[in-house]
Amino acid sequence: GMRWVDNMVIPLKAEHPTDAHEWINFVYQPEIAAAITEWVWYESPVDDEVIREIIRQDAKEFDDPALVALADDTTVWPDDTTLSNTHVYKNLDAEEEEAWHDLFDPVIQG
Predict the structure, then answer these.
(1) What region does 88 belong to: left with phi over 0, alpha with psi -120 to 50, or beta?
(2) Distance between CA atoms of residues 34 and 52, nearest Å
(3) Three-class SS string for 2-31?
(4) d(Cα 73, Cα 59) in Å, to the nearest integer?
(5) Rounded CA separation 61/88 (Å)
(6) How far is Cα 68 from Cα 107, in angstroms, rounded to an integer?
(7) What is the pLDDT of residues 17-73, one digit of tens each?
(8) pTM value > 0.85
Protein backbone atom coordinates (compact mmCIF):
# COMPACT_ATOMS: atom_id res chain seq x y z
CA GLY A 1 0.00 0.00 0.00
CA MET A 2 0.89 3.64 -0.14
CA ARG A 3 1.81 5.48 3.03
CA TRP A 4 -0.28 8.65 3.03
CA VAL A 5 0.07 11.93 4.81
CA ASP A 6 -2.36 14.66 5.66
CA ASN A 7 -1.48 18.30 6.12
CA MET A 8 -2.78 21.38 7.80
CA VAL A 9 -1.79 24.40 5.79
CA ILE A 10 -2.55 28.08 5.84
CA PRO A 11 -3.37 29.45 2.39
CA LEU A 12 -1.12 32.23 1.17
CA LYS A 13 -3.81 34.91 1.39
CA ALA A 14 -5.71 33.56 4.40
CA GLU A 15 -7.94 36.19 5.96
CA HIS A 16 -7.21 35.05 9.54
CA PRO A 17 -3.79 33.33 9.66
CA THR A 18 -3.41 33.92 13.40
CA ASP A 19 -6.60 31.93 13.99
CA ALA A 20 -5.18 29.14 11.86
CA HIS A 21 -2.00 29.11 13.96
CA GLU A 22 -4.09 28.97 17.12
CA TRP A 23 -6.09 26.04 15.74
CA ILE A 24 -2.94 24.14 14.78
CA ASN A 25 -1.44 24.76 18.23
CA PHE A 26 -4.69 23.56 19.81
CA VAL A 27 -4.94 20.27 17.92
CA TYR A 28 -1.27 19.48 18.53
CA GLN A 29 -1.78 19.44 22.31
CA PRO A 30 -1.34 15.78 23.31
CA GLU A 31 -4.75 15.40 24.99
CA ILE A 32 -6.53 16.93 21.99
CA ALA A 33 -4.43 14.97 19.48
CA ALA A 34 -5.22 11.75 21.36
CA ALA A 35 -8.95 12.52 21.31
CA ILE A 36 -8.77 13.10 17.55
CA THR A 37 -6.91 9.80 17.06
CA GLU A 38 -9.48 8.01 19.21
CA TRP A 39 -12.23 9.37 16.97
CA VAL A 40 -10.69 8.92 13.51
CA TRP A 41 -8.24 6.05 14.09
CA TYR A 42 -5.50 7.87 12.17
CA GLU A 43 -1.89 8.07 13.25
CA SER A 44 -1.24 11.34 15.07
CA PRO A 45 1.51 13.78 14.08
CA VAL A 46 2.17 14.22 17.80
CA ASP A 47 4.72 11.88 19.44
CA ASP A 48 3.15 8.44 19.01
CA GLU A 49 4.32 7.07 22.37
CA VAL A 50 2.73 10.01 24.19
CA ILE A 51 -0.53 9.65 22.26
CA ARG A 52 -0.64 5.88 22.66
CA GLU A 53 -0.13 6.21 26.42
CA ILE A 54 -3.02 8.69 26.67
CA ILE A 55 -5.17 6.27 24.65
CA ARG A 56 -4.24 3.43 27.00
CA GLN A 57 -5.18 5.58 30.00
CA ASP A 58 -8.50 6.48 28.36
CA ALA A 59 -9.12 2.79 27.62
CA LYS A 60 -8.74 2.00 31.33
CA GLU A 61 -10.79 5.00 32.48
CA PHE A 62 -13.68 4.25 30.13
CA ASP A 63 -13.24 0.44 30.16
CA ASP A 64 -13.19 0.58 26.37
CA PRO A 65 -11.72 -2.45 24.56
CA ALA A 66 -11.78 -0.56 21.25
CA LEU A 67 -9.28 1.93 22.67
CA VAL A 68 -7.11 -0.92 23.91
CA ALA A 69 -7.07 -2.24 20.34
CA LEU A 70 -6.38 1.21 18.93
CA ALA A 71 -3.28 1.72 21.06
CA ASP A 72 -1.57 -1.25 19.38
CA ASP A 73 -3.20 -1.30 15.95
CA THR A 74 -0.50 -1.58 13.28
CA THR A 75 -2.67 0.08 10.66
CA VAL A 76 -2.73 3.20 12.85
CA TRP A 77 0.77 2.82 14.31
CA PRO A 78 2.68 0.94 11.60
CA ASP A 79 5.43 -1.35 12.84
CA ASP A 80 8.46 -2.28 10.74
CA THR A 81 6.65 -5.23 9.14
CA THR A 82 3.70 -3.07 8.14
CA LEU A 83 5.98 -0.30 6.88
CA SER A 84 7.96 -2.78 4.79
CA ASN A 85 4.76 -3.35 2.80
CA THR A 86 4.18 0.33 2.05
CA HIS A 87 5.77 3.04 -0.04
CA VAL A 88 5.67 6.80 0.14
CA TYR A 89 4.55 9.29 -2.46
CA LYS A 90 6.95 10.07 -5.26
CA ASN A 91 9.36 12.95 -4.73
CA LEU A 92 9.05 15.33 -7.65
CA ASP A 93 12.11 16.48 -9.51
CA ALA A 94 12.48 20.21 -10.31
CA GLU A 95 10.71 19.96 -13.68
CA GLU A 96 7.80 17.98 -12.23
CA GLU A 97 7.53 20.40 -9.31
CA GLU A 98 7.32 23.35 -11.69
CA ALA A 99 4.63 21.62 -13.78
CA TRP A 100 2.69 20.86 -10.59
CA HIS A 101 2.82 24.49 -9.50
CA ASP A 102 1.81 25.70 -12.97
CA LEU A 103 -1.31 23.53 -12.75
CA PHE A 104 -2.35 23.97 -9.13
CA ASP A 105 -1.13 27.36 -7.91
CA PRO A 106 -3.86 29.25 -9.78
CA VAL A 107 -6.45 26.98 -8.16
CA ILE A 108 -5.18 27.00 -4.58
CA GLN A 109 -4.12 30.64 -4.52
CA GLY A 110 -7.31 31.95 -6.10
Answers:
(1) beta
(2) 8
(3) ECCCCCCCCCCCCCCHHHHHHHHHHHCCHH
(4) 14
(5) 36
(6) 43
(7) 999 999 999 999 999 999 999 999 999 999 999 999 999 999 999 999 999 999 999
(8) no
